[in-house]
């Protein structure tokens, strides 16, 4: 009996105002795997990520998080908010624009979900949050408010916040795209460490070096279609499609 | 300066009126703020109730406060409810200013960055906890100056209640001036007392502003 995949996507489709953004996407992400999602702007990468935790509601298709179907209940109806929230709590998400909660300190940002959503005891949540902040190198800013941090620092806190829920999978939506070039490295380093610790990650990114060094699978989206899925070595040295070859040439 | 000595003799009436005004003000704005916050929570769901609430807020804002006070005090008895002047006044203040508080918070809700709410949803937050923990604190911090302004309005609106016979500060001054024919002195004292309360309010609001400044919401 193989292990249940962390994320299983079957025949996912999504349109916005009649424009097909995702077309019949299927993807399996096993536990501990890092999957990088590449593609040009508007290819549907972010939408794919946002469908996985139902921030966007797909039109068709089935998504399972650690074996549990998200968004649709056992009777094929729209899942109620309580159940949806419970599954979402098992995923983490890191956004391009950080989206830290500005009224809370760094430590409170990381503690908030475990305490409020998981009803964890405060001292327990604090211990976890402090350990995670140390992991991302932000323990010295525990009592600072988000607006005092640099972009890279904010993103590292956002990663700690996602980790605090012990998610089955962490979804990264272009986590370094809003950062100054000299801040990109510190976030990528944290993400590399996470991958070597066995976290399951799906990363929408434009960072080729990272995708090549860290991924177990690289997938390429073009106009809503998943046109290539391979191991990073193959993807970057000997891609199957002309489109990917072109993409790699242009981004080299 | 016999007028001032008359005022001094009547200090008990003034203090009693001022105390009544303060109690009415504090109770009504606490209730109004709570109702306002809860109303904006109900507006989070897009349903029939939220549409009705939007209308209710707008109707309330289009109503002169005095008319609402009249309506509650003189109108309710025809429905078989006979409120005291004080009770009718308190309820009128509370629901009238609740509508304004709701409208102020609603305005801030519209411009609240969607990403933060998505982040909360992605971490498993929903409805009530999402609102009270993530959304509302930010709305309150962001709208502090407007909420403060509304408190001043609420304080001044308590003076209208003299007309439905509530024994608050303005009523006390009116009774003193009518008895001794010293309107100028009586109302100067009243103005001074309203000013004192307002200034204390302003100082408290300024102090509250540091919560926002510390979090980068405003520049102190």
Give an overview in words.
By secondary structure, chain A is an alpha/beta fold. Chain A folds into two domains: 167 residues, 3-Layer(aba) Sandwich (Rossmann fold), CATH 3.40.50.300; 65 residues, no CATH class. In chain A, the strands form two sheets. A six-stranded mixed beta sheet of chain A has the order 6-7-8-3-9-10, with helices on both faces. The mean pLDDT of chain A is 95. Chain B is an all-alpha fold and 220 residues long. Chain B has one domain: MetI-like (MetI-like fold, Orthogonal Bundle), CATH 1.10.3720.10. In chain B, helix 4 packs across helix 5 and helix 9 runs antiparallel to helix 10. In chain B, 80% of the residues lie in helices and 0% in strands.
Secondary structure elements and pairings:
The complex is a heterodimer of chains A (252) and B (220).
Chain A lengths: L6 E10 L2 E11 L4 E5 L6 H8 L7 E6 L2 E2 L11 H8 L2 E4 L11 H11 L5 H14 L15 H13 L5 E5 L7 H16 L4 E4 L3 H7 L2 E6 L2 E6 L1 H6 L4 H10 L1
Parallel strand pairs in A: 3-8, 3-9, 6-7, 7-8
Antiparallel strand pairs in A: 1-2, 1-4, 4-5, 9-10
Helix pairs in contact in A: 3-4, 3-5, 4-5, 5-6
Chain B lengths: L1 H8 L1 H34 L3 H14 L3 H11 L9 H27 L2 H9 L4 H16 L1 H14 L11 H12 L2 H32 L6
Helix pairs in contact in B: 2-3, 2-5, 2-9, 3-5, 4-5, 5-7, 5-8, 8-10, 9-10
């Amino acid at each position: 009996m193989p292990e249940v995949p962390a994320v299983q996507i079957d025949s996912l489709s999504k349109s916005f105002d009649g424009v097909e953004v995702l077309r019949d996407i299927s993807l399996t992400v096993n536990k501990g795997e890092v999957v990088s999602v590449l593609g040009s702007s508007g290819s549907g990468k972010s939408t794919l990520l946002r469908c996985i935790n139902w921030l966007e509601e797909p039109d068709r298709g089935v998504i399972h998080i650690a074996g549990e179907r998200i968004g649709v209940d056992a009777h094929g109806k729209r899942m109620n908010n309580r159940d949806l929230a419970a599954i979402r709590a098992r995923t983490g998400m890191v956004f391009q624009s950080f989206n830290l909660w500005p009224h809370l300190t760094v430590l409170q940002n990381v503690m908030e979900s475990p305490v409020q959503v998981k009803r964890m005891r405060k001292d327990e949540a604090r211990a976890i949050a402090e350990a995670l902040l140390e992991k991302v190198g932000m323990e010295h800013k525990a009592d600072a408010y988000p607006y005092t941090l640099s972009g890279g620092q904010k993103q590292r806190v956002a990663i700690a916040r996602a980790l605090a829920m012990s998610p089955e999978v962490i979804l990264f939506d272009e986590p370094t795209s809003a950062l100054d070039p000299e801040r990109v490295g510190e976030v990528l380093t944290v993400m590399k460490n996470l991958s070597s610790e066995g976290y399951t990650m799906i990363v929408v990114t434009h960072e080729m070096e990272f995708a090549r060094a860290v991924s177990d699978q690289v997938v390429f989206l073009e106009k809503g279609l998943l046109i290539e899925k391979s191991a990073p070595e193959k993807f970057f040295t000997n891609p199957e499609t002309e489109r990917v070859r072109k993409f790699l040439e242009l981004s080299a | 300066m016999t007028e001032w000595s008359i005022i001094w003799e009547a200090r008990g009436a003034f203090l009693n009126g001022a105390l009544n005004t303060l109690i009415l003000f504090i109770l009504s704005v606490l209730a109004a703020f709570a109702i306002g916050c809860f109303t904006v929570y109900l507006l989070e769901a897009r349903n029939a109730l939220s549409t009705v609430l939007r209308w209710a807020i707008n109707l309330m804002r289009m109503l002169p406060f005095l008319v609402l006070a009249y309506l509650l005090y003189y109108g309710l008895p025809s429905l078989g409810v006979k409120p005291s002047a004080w009770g009718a006044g308190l309820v009128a203040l509370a629901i009238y200013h609740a509508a304004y508080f709701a409208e102020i918070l609603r305005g801030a809700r519209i411009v609240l960055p969607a990403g933060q709410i998505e982040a909360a949803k992605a971490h498993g937050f929903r409805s009530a906890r999402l609102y009270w923990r993530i959304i509302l604190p930010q709305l309150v911090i962001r709208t502090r100056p407007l909420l403060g302004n509304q408190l001043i309005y609420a304080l001044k609106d308590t003076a209208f209640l003299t007309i439905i016979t509530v024994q608050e500060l303005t009523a006390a001054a009116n009774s003193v001036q009518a008895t001794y024919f010293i309107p100028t002195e009586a109302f100067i004292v009243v103005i001074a007392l309203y000013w004192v309360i307002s200034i204390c309010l302003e100082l408290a609001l300024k102090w509250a502003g540091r919560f926002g400044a510390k979090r980068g919401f405003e520049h102190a």
